[in-house]
Amino acid sequence: MEAGFSEMRNELQSRDALWRRIQLDCQQLHTELLKMREYKDTQEIQIKHKSSCVQLTEQLENKNAGLLLLAQSQEHQREELNKIRNHVYREEQSHRSEQERMKTGISDLTEKLHQKEITIATIMEKASLLERQLKMELEIKDKLLAKQQFLDFRYKVIKSENTHLKEMV
What we know:
Blueprint: H1 2-46, H2 50-168
Helix pairs in contact: 1-2
Keywords: Coiled coil, Cytoplasm
Main location: cytoplasm
Organism: Sagittarius serpentarius (Secretary bird)
């Protein structure tokens, strides 16, 4: 897409340079036309020959025709230049809006990722707390089991002593 913009800018600059050159040529021709008109006026006073006047008039008419053609060409070039400028402007606007949409999308995704990271951290803290609680409960159960086994053992010993005492009695 950037290559297309670069190519359009180069085309625009090229046409702009051509337009300026045509404008300069028009100015030079206009200056020359003015000089020729002045020359014609002085020649009419000094020279009474009709053929010279006709020749200068034809030259002026040819120059005028050339100027008109250049002016038409210049106007056409200006229209083309404006079309290209408008096209480049629309493309740049489209590119900018696409960039803004992408920035917004990236920002939204970053926010979602941040929220998920917070959720994961919270879950990890809860899991760690539950793990500690389970370890404590296991330790308590192990102690209770050991106590129960000890009590069972004492019970069996006492029962056995009781049985022995009953037999003796």
